[in-house]
């Protein structure tokens, strides 16, 4: 409960910082897990200075995936996407930090790896859009919805990051 209160307070009063303290949902997709890229991906977010508040390895159900990708249900690739995401384990994560949603999208790179520059996760590790290694929330609203789908409130840890004073003014 205290974690929820602190998160709400941080969002209402960002203490004059350049950005807003927020959370985002990331998932290393089955191809990323099978290719053993989880550590590399986690390392990139840690090195950036973001705080990991939840992580789990799951075999996502079809029901969860249909709800997660509900806004894409009318697209021709929807069935393929749900099958692909359910084809193996997924590493679901929640990260916290200033402007974490926007910055995470930049770290991940464009959805189509052909458009993702080198240095981004997709630019470095992906070849085709159908197997693009990682999902990241595209907005704060999407992040809230996706976090609530994949994690219970008890799974989200609130802990003090001792490196925070080295990252933020």
UniProtKB/TrEMBL annotation:
User: EC number(s)?
Assistant: 2.7.4.6
- Signal sequence span is 1-18
InterPro entries on file: NDK-like_dom, NDK-like_dom_sf, Nucleoside_diP_kinase, Nucleoside_diP_kinase_AS
Query: Which cofactor does this sequence's record say it needs?
Result: Mg(2+)
Q: Does the keyword Signal apply?
A: yes
User: A single Pfam family, by name?
Assistant: NDK
| Start and end residues of each Nucleoside diphosphate kinase-like domain | 21-158
Q: Which PROSITE patterns match?
A: NDPK
Q: Which keywords appear in this protein's UniProt record, sorted alphabetically? A: ATP-binding, Kinase, Nucleotide-binding, Signal, Transferase
Report any one BP term from Gene Ontology: GTP biosynthetic process
- One annotated GO molecular function: nucleoside diphosphate kinase activity
Q: What are the coiled-coil residue ranges?
A: none
Question: Would I find Kinase among this entry's keywords?
Answer: yes
Report the catalytic activity. Answer: a ribonucleoside 5'-diphosphate + ATP = a ribonucleoside 5'-triphosphate + ADP; a 2'-deoxyribonucleoside 5'-diphosphate + ATP = a 2'-deoxyribonucleoside 5'-triphosphate + ADP
Primary role: Catalyzes the phosphorylation of ribonucleosides and deoxyribonucleoside diphosphates, other than ATP, into the corresponding triphosphates with ATP as the major phosphate donor. The ATP gamma phosphate is transferred to the nucleoside diphosphate beta phosphate via a ping-pong mechanism, using a phosphorylated active-site intermediate. Through the catalyzed exchange of gamma-phosphate between di- and triphosphonucleosides participates in regulation of intracellular nucleotide homeostasis. Inhibits granulocyte differentiation. May be required for ciliary function during renal development. Independently of its kinase activity, facilitates mitochondrial tethering prior to membrane fusion through its direct membrane-binding and hexamerization. Implicated in repair of both single- and double-stranded breaks in DNA through its association with the ribonucleotide reductase complex (RNR complex) via its interaction with the histone acetyltransferase KAT5, this interaction enables recruitment of NME3 at DNA damage sites where it plays a role in the repair of DNA, independently of its kinase activity.
Subunit structure, interactors included: Homohexamer. Interacts (via its N-terminal region) with KAT5; this interaction enables recruitment of NME3 at DNA damage sites where it plays a role in the repair of DNA. Found in association with several ciliary nephronophthisis proteins, including NEK8, CEP164, ANKS6.
The similarity annotation says:
Belongs to the NDK family.
List the HAMAP family hit by this protein, alphabetically. NDP_kinase
NCBIfam families, sorted = PRK00668.1
Q: How is this protein named in the record?
A: Nucleoside diphosphate kinase
- UniProt source species: Pipistrellus kuhlii (Kuhl's pipistrelle)
Q: What is the lineage of its organism?
A: Eukaryota, Metazoa, Chordata, Craniata, Vertebrata
